[in-house]
Amino acid sequence: MNTHVDVLIIGGGAIGVCSAYYLRKQGLRAVLVDKGEVCSGGSYGNAGLIVPSHCVPLAAPSALPNAWKKLFTPDGPIYLKPRLDRDLFRWVWKFRQSCNERHLRTATPVLRQLSLASMRLFEDLASREGVSFGYEKTGYLRLYKTAAGLREAAEEIELVKSFGVDGQLLDGDQIRQMEPGIRIDVLGGISYPEDAHVDPGRFVRGMAELLVQQGGQVLPFTEVFDFETSGRTITRVKTTRGDITAKEIVLSAGSWVPEIIRNLGIRLPIQGAKGYSFTFKKPAAWPSIPFSLGEAGAAVTAMGEFLRISGTFAIVGLDLSWNRARMRSMLEEVPTYLPDLDPRKLELLEVWRGLRPCSPDGLPFLGRSPKYDNLIVAAGHAMIGVSLSPITGKLVSQIVMAEQRSIDLTALRVDRFD
Fold this sequence. Notes:
By secondary structure, the protein is an alpha/beta fold. The protein has one domain (2-412): FAD/NAD(P)-binding domain (3-Layer(bba) Sandwich), CATH 3.50.50. The protein is built from ten helices and 19 strands.
């Protein structure tokens, strides 16, 4: 195979398929490649939350004192795997530098704007494109069992309200009144009514099918392993199924981006954060609203006939090994919040783990590479990659077509840590 295309998109997750879709809508010959199947990475088994409420970056002033206590707990929801790795040290140092009030005030409105724009695109796709991916705008409930957790919730709601988020702090009785059909054992929580959720696997695969229907091409099991360059241009992409030449190249391969572009002399600070999910047959009459279990760092999402319990945040690089203690701990926490939901009594359908690509400042990288004129990076979306995928794809198409950006991308520059 020796293929000539307008745009080559590397990475078949939510960001990649949305980028390919919006590029194809511009009339360009778009080809999407992935080293595995489409949606075989971090986009597949996550909680599927579409969360305009989630606009505070990971690197916030509260992150260091809150996370540091839990960071080295073997079975905790947050974990950093100690290892002698220069890239990890660099990432942690830059994360620490970003945990300040100035960054919070700069990054939060950017994430908020991206999320609202993405929500509008989700609604457009769900209503007009004929792709069925389980989109439901039911809102979102974050639950807390402890007084300390509820204090953090109160601080969070005051902060996000100042950026226009519609949310309400509730006590335990108010939470139980919202969902009277199930038992909820909490002190209180937050209701975010503007949020939504999807089945992420159905969304990504549905968008890939739509891309193909509209004339795009998807090449699974096609791994990129090298590049040829001339000056500031990438002239050839070498894959396991032959060479591809492209006028533009979009890199959207999540946690694997740093490895893919290492041979190009580009160092991008992205660390993989591993999460797990368990998909069960949904119990009868279970509500459609998703729950976040605040102190436990887990989420419970109804997806049609299924129920998914997902969570943990372990900074591990590219380590996809199973941590059974952390998986077991996550499941044991669920019935302490939701007594009617005992995973041991549910029909288990699938167990999954995947990596979320995290930047040090909690903002994605989106824009042209400063080193190569025809390379665009769209990666580092952490836990909100599915949530931000439509707007990211739309912005990638605007970059390629040299159109005016619908959102200012200055804060997302690829070279901001150089």
